[in-house]
Design brief:
- The structure holds two protein chains of two kinds.
- By secondary structure, chain A is of the alpha/beta class.
- Helix content of chain A is 37%, strand content 18%.
- By secondary structure, chain B is α/β, with parallel strands linked by helices.
- In chain B, 39% of the residues lie in helices and 14% in strands.
- In chain B, helix 2 packs across helix 8 and helix 4 runs parallel beside helix 6.
- Chain B is globular, with a radius of gyration of 19 Å.
- In chain B, 53% of the residues are buried.
- The chains are: A alpha/beta, B alpha/beta.
- The complex binds thiamine diphosphate, iron/sulfur cluster and magnesium ion.
Chain lengths: 391, 316
């Protein structure tokens, strides 16, 4: 039987990946991902994972190497963060364009300028349009579960796309939590050996990564878009199967006390649990507050978002990144465009919070709700504010 | 003896008849680089996987939905052929040891132009060579970024005019000496490093075969004439390659476990570099003084190789 053990989340993610019969991993260390890299190395060194571990000289080469290995039909893993993810950027749309299953853990961290090693989402947001399936974990258990599920989703014959699992740096990666690891036998059953579509092998030579001009390029882009959209069906099936086998259920959009809420907040990642405490406090005072937690960032769950916000009067979208000179945070603009054509939709507010590891406390969340409730004339609707900034 | 002079006699027996890079690719007429790639494939045979960098050879061979490749081939980006090849090698190894693929030996080969090797691809190549992957990397050096319009690289020779280091009223083209890439790879402790040129097909093929037999990293720096970029006649690719070798501009040698060996193709007495420069538009602006400066450097560099061949011993 699966049992609960206390473990640091980054180490646990490596353990979970170790349960997935990976054939190859290429990882370059960066804070706060390093413990994933180190623990994976330990597992390989101790013979607990039978995989090739390539100690590449950069994240650019890490991504290049897993692309090459995935091309051979191998099950591959990498993990990175912040500057490392930015260095990989060039290769991300190539990986998805080549329809290669790859799983990448991202210990989300602020992007430099100035250098900062703490958590926000400015590393993943610039990768939004790279054609990767993008999942967000809220706690350690989810980080483990999503990491295992990611292989099944990525390798599914109707998907064949890379998947990234976002795990807030430090806030999640460095927490010690009681975690439940699935039984190895069940994982083997859940995740059979990869069946690749085509492989780099002389038995049947193929050309991968061909050159394409205007005559085919649009069609290839459309095919990639369709593949990403269609992956949602598979993601839902995989989560169904997971719930049946392991008893924990996953949805593209999770909610907390949202059904009858007048005012909703939306979070992504580890801040959900803090926001829930704020909502409990507000509910105790008679405020009908609720929470939406976005787990699936790409493909974007339009229908689910529309359904959960339908009856709310106000919606506070929190962002952990800035779109400089743009319309507000990246999540905010996504939600706004998702709801634009809805006849019945809430007034939407945007707070940019927790940049570069800045603490956001329960009273902060309570204060955000109070501020939005006080805006009776909806003056601050469709604007954004840097929460807690010192002017 | 110059074996090339007996090419007609030997070729039918010595060269793999099977074409693994098929006709119909889009390289310019008389391209020396695509000839090099074709000969390399013949020497490698079918049990090969190639990871190619962006560049002329990638563009001319892989126009979707067609392909000239009869061996498994992957292209990802410009600067990462060696890293992709590292991944291919590791992936095949991982699958083979678990019995997920058949047990045959597959040679993994990375290939790039001078830009994709010596400039933007240098880090990935250094990493791959240092890690000791079982991989051959071949640099097809045509001495500039040809794919993007003849811009200079660190492989462009002193004095050559390119579109980003053009000869002008106050400039005589490239202001720097060519980077010595083969030596940089030797410094990585790689067991087999060689220079080659498709103007000497049998020598090149033999070197590829040798590299293929090494279970570990190996590197071949292949000098390939680009008539388009060098502004010479498209019938001159073979002749230019031979003049580069005969003048000592591009000496042919190999380094096995640190032991240098000058290839038998090298003449006893070098021809003047002027003979090599003459037919090429990229050197046309050079005056006598500049040519003499280059002549001296070429002689010095060649002497260094002769000295190494004479004095240096193998590592083991
Ligand atoms: C990151 C990146 N920078 C620049 C380019 C543009 N580019 C494509 S091929 C090339 C030059 C290739 O030169 P080389 O490697 O010498 O190969 P050749 O075409 O001469 O065979 C350049 C600059 C690119 N594709 N990617
Ligand atoms: S530009 Fe030069 S290297 Fe490129 S295909 Fe033409 S001749 Fe060959
Ligand atoms: Mg070149």
């Amino acid at each position: 039987m699966a049992k609960r053990i206390g473990m640091e989340v980054a180490v646990a993610v490596a353990e979970a990946v170790g349960q997935c019969d990976i054939d190859m991993a290429a990882v370059y260390p960066i804070t706060p991902q390093s413990h994933i890299a180190e623990h994976l190395s330990d597992l390989v060194a101790d013979g607990k994972i039978n995989a090739e571990f390539v100690t590449v000289e950069s994240e650019h080469s890490a991504m290049s190497a897993v692309i090459g290995a995935s091309g051979t039909g191998a099950r591959v893993y990498t993990a990175t963060s912040s500057q490392g993810l930015m260095l990989m950027h060039e290769l991300l749309p190539i990986a998805s364009g080549m329809r290669l299953p790859i799983v990448m853990g991202i210990a989300n961290r602020a992007v430099s300028g100035p250098l900062n090693i703490l958590n926000d989402h400015s590393d993943i947001m610039p990768q939004r349009d790279s054609g990767w399936i993008s999942l967000f974990a809220e706690n350690g258990q989810e980080a483990i579960d999503l990491s295992i599920q990611a292989f099944k989703i990525a390798e599914h014959k109707d998907v064949q796309l890379p998947v990234c699992v976002n795990i807030d740096g430090f806030q999640l990666t460095h927490m010690v939590e009681p975690l439940e690891f699935p039984d190895q036998e069940l994982v083997n059953k859940f995740l059979p050996t990869r069946v690749p579509y085509a492989t780099l092998h002389p038995a049947k030579p193929v050309t991968m990564g061909a050159f394409s001009m205007s005559d085919y390029f649009t069609e290839i882009m459309k095919a990639k878009d369709e593949a990403l959209k269609n992956s949602k069906k598979v993601i839902l099936e995989v989560w169904d199967e997971w719930a049946k086998m392991f008893g924990r259920s996953y949805k593209p959009v999770e909610t907390y006390k949202a059904e009858d809420a007048d005012i909703l907040m939306l979070t992504m990642g580890s801040m959900g649990e803090t926001a829930e405490m704020a909502i409990d406090g507000l509910r105790a005072k008679g405020v009908k507050a609720g929470l939406i937690k976005l787990r699936l960032w790409r493909p974007f769950p339009f229908a689910e978002i529309k359904a959960v916000v339908k009856n709310a009067k106000k919606l506070i979208v929190t962002d952990r990144a800035v779109s400089f000179g743009g319309p507000g945070g990246p999540v905010f603009s996504e939600i706004k465009s998702a709801l634009y054509a809805e006849i019945q939709r809430p007034a939407i507010y945007n707070y940019i919070i927790g940049l570069g590891g800045r603490d956001v406390t329960v009273p902060d969340f309570v204060h955000m709700f109070e501020k939005v409730i006080a805006d009776k004339a909806n003056k601050a609707v469709d604007t954004y504010e840097f929460w807690g900034v010192r002017e | 003896m110059n074996i090339v002079e007996n090419f007609d006699l030997y070729a039918p027996r010595l060269i793999n008849k099977k074409e693994l890079l098929s006709a119909g690719h889009r390289a310019c007429q008389g391209c020396g680089e695509v000839l090099g790639v074709r000969l390399m494939c013949k020497a490698l045979g079918e049990n090969t996987v190639i990871a190619s960098a962006t560049g002329c050879m990638e563009i001319v061979t892989s126009m979707f939905p067609t392909t000239a490749w009869e061996v498994p081939w992957i292209h990802v980006a410009f600067e990462n052929a060696a890293a992709v090849a590292s991944g291919v090698e590791a992936g095949l190894k991982g699958l083979r040891k678990k019995g997920k693929i058949d047990d045959r030996y597959i040679k993994v080969v990375g290939m790039a132009g001078d830009g994709g090797t010596m400039d933007i691809g240098m880090q990935a190549l250094s990493g791959a060579m240092e890690r000791g992957h079982d991989m051959l990397f071949v640099c097809f050096d045509n001495e500039a970024y040809m794919n993007t319009g003849i811009q200079r690289s660190s492989g462009t020779p002193m004095g050559a005019s390119t579109t980003t280091a053009p000869a002008g009223k106050v400039s005589s083209g490239q202001k720097t000496w060519k980077k010595n890439m083969a030596e940089i790879i030797v410094a990585h402790g790689v067991p087999y490093v060689a220079t080659a040129c498709p103007s000497y097909p049998l020598d090149f093929i033999r070197k590829v075969e040798k590299a293929k037999s090494i279970k570990g990293p190996s590197y071949i720096h292949c000098f390939t004439v680009c008539p388009t970029g060098w502004r010479c006649g498209s019938h001159l690719a073979i002749a230019m390659g031979r003049l580069a070798v005969e003048s000592g501009v591009f000496p042919l040698y190999e380094v096995e476990n640190g032991k240098y060996k000058v290839s038998s193709e090298m003449p006893k007495k070098l021809k003047p570099v002027k003979d090599y420069f003459k037919a090429q538009g990229r050197f046309r602006h050079l005056g006598e003084a500049e040519i003499q400066k280059i002549q001296k450097k070429v002689e010095n560099e060649y002497q260094k190789i002769l000295d190494k061949a004479k004095y240096l011993k193998a590592w083991d």
